[in-house]
Amino acid sequence: MSPETNLTWRNWAGNQRAEPVRALAPRTAGEVADAVRAAAHDGLTVRMTGTGHSFTGAAVAEGVLLRPDALTAVRSVDTSTGLVTVEAGLPLHTLNRVLHEHGLALANMGDIQEQTVAGALQTATHGTGRDAAGLASQVAALELVLADGSAVTCSPAERPELFDAARAGLGALGVVTAVTWKTVPAFLLRAQEAPMRWDEVLARVDEFDSANEHFEFYWFPHTEGCLTKRNNPVAGPARPLSKAKHWLDDRFLSNTVFGAVNRVTHRAPASTPFVNGVCARLLGARVYSDTSYKVFTSPRTVRFKEQEYAIPREELVPALRELRALFNRRDWRIGFPIEVRMLPPEDAWLSMAYGRRTAFIAVHVYHRAPHEEYFRAVENLLVAFGGRPHWGKLHTRDAAYLEKAYPRFGDFRALRDELDPDRRFANAYTTRVFGD
């Protein structure tokens, strides 16, 4: 493992950057441990990046930056138990293909598969589900390198408190070097996507949530238009979209055209309501079935910035009505749809869905557009509903707020004090959200 010469790091959205003292690409957990010990000797902090899909400064490395590119091995696949151990830097899209080759799958996923497995896990990436929870609930064991350079494994049976804390730990307790996943037999999902008006979606959201394993919807601001998505396991046979339909809907309309639209509305904000109405009509109804991860995930080439808050599920409709009223009071021109998802309770201490059935509301802006005033107003609204910010998406909350939002937050900080008293794994973001 030799030092890299490229010391500049940027995230996907382009709103975070780092110029660390040194950058390394470890090939093994042992080399990660060596890097941590060397950093301690030199008085430097350590952070491992993923693929940069967090919008916060969670991955910003001020001392030693560890790149995950060489830590990508598939260590074991046990089809009898469904337990699959892979190294931290393996991209989710590669994991999905490996699992499919062995007749396995993740039970639930978010809609992007470009992240590394550790990066997605450490920020509590979730997806939407009635019974199937997020990534943090699909982990059987973790391998970490701690601040003293020791490599440990944690699971429900071995160091269970570390396991519950570190599954969504933002790398603040140690560097994750491998993840053992609890997978399920491979399955097909039937996707039913349909446009629907705002009033009907809000009137039927409880019905859709209870009747479908995976339900979500998008609202196009300044319009009455929503796009609903209902995904459910199906026996088959698969009836995927044709290549032409997939290209037209998911590549051309959702990315090429959408990118062009955002460039136009960025230059001419007054056109946004009209353009949003056109976009809502273009994304029409469709039904298809395919391998689960191909339904869960979609290509995303239009760069954006995002904020997402998790609120108690029973507060979803009141919060959405308040959000729409906020739009009516503000002179905003927002081109990106607002995304709504659900999740059952989780038990990882810092999962946004810890201990409660949860609804997620995500707002986005084009990556070149200012976001501060819009995001802060939505944040203030959702905080009033008991919201918890997504760890990888923009927010302004600090430790004083988060301690009230998470029942086990104090336990997490106590464990951090024990394992990393010198803050070897700290950066400006972890200092804000966890305190010092």
The Cα radius of gyration reads 21 Å
Major sheet size, sense and barrel closure: 8 strands, antiparallel
Shape: globular
Query: How far apart are the first and last residues' alpha carbons, in Å?
Result: 32 Å
Share of residues in helices = 25-40%
Give the beta-strand count. 20
Q: How many separate helices? A: 13
Low-pLDDT residue intervals, each spanning 5 or more residues: none
Q: Which class do the helix and strand fractions yield?
A: alpha+beta
On the 0-100 scale, what is the average pLDDT?
92
Strand content: 15-25%
The spatial strand order of the largest sheet comes to 16-13-15-14-18-19-17-20
Topology:
Blueprint: E1 9-10, E2 17-18, E3 22-24, H1 29-42, E4 46-48, E5 64-66, E6 74-78, E7 83-87, H2 92-101, E8 104-105, H3 117-122, E9 139-145, E10 151-154, H4 160-166, E11 175-182, E12 184-185, E13 188-197, H5 198-211, E14 214-219, E15 225-234, H6 243-267, H7 272-282, E16 286-291, H8 292-296, E17 304-312, H9 316-329, E18 338-343, E19 358-366, H10 372-383, E20 388-389, H11 399-405, H12 409-419, H13 428-434
Parallel strand pairs: 3-5, 4-5
Antiparallel strand pairs: 1-2, 6-7, 7-11, 8-12, 9-10, 9-11, 13-15, 13-16, 14-15, 14-18, 17-19, 17-20, 18-19
Helix pairs in contact: 6-7, 9-10
Write a structural description.
By secondary structure, the chain is of the alpha+beta class. Helices cover 33% and strands 24% of the residues. It is built from 13 helices and 20 strands. The strands form 5 sheets. An 8-stranded antiparallel beta sheet has the order 16-13-15-14-18-19-17-20. Strands 6-7-11-9-10 form a 5-stranded antiparallel beta sheet. A 3-stranded parallel beta sheet has the order 3-5-4, covered by helices on one side. A hairpin with a 5-residue loop joins strand 9 and strand 10. The longest helix is centred in the middle third of the chain and has 25 residues.
